[in-house]
Design brief:
By secondary structure, the protein is mainly alpha-helical. The chain has helices at about 20-65, 70-85, 90-115.
Length: about 120
């Protein structure tokens, strides 16, 4: 009988990067804010959304005569911030949604100002 023996050296794969990604650091920050500053972040996101971003976006849509599609995007973006806050969801949910809404608002405003200026 022939006997075959295989010898392998195991090489470990590091699934955890040495430095966390920007997203992982952001989620870790959101988790750290949950206990002490949850209501502060909830109030701040609604206040910034309702008092700064939304009026600027609605003024931009009205002043430059943008179509109803922009208004639909604005309304969905506004409600996507307000509903999680009224539902008292965690900051891990509220802050990424607000960041997305912020980028949508600023993107529409800046692109409109740059194309119509």
């Amino acid at each position: 009988m022939v006997r075959t023996e295989l010898n392998h050296t195991a090489q470990g794969i590091n699934l955890n990067p040495t430095s966390p990604s920007l997203w992982n650091r952001f989620i870790a920050f959101c988790d750290s804010q949950e206990v002490e500053n949850h209501w502060l972040w909830a109030g701040a996101t609604v206040a910034i959304q309702g008092c700064i971003l939304t009026p600027l976006l609605l003024w931009t849509i009205n002043h430059f005569g943008l179509g109803d599609g922009y208004l639909l995007v604005a309304v969905v973006s506004i409600f996507s911030v307000v509903v999680p806050n009224l539902s008292a969801l965690s900051t891990k949910t509220i802050l990424p949604i607000f960041a997305t809404s912020f980028l949508i608002h600023v993107g529409i405003i800046l692109s409109t100002l740059l194309t119509h200026a």
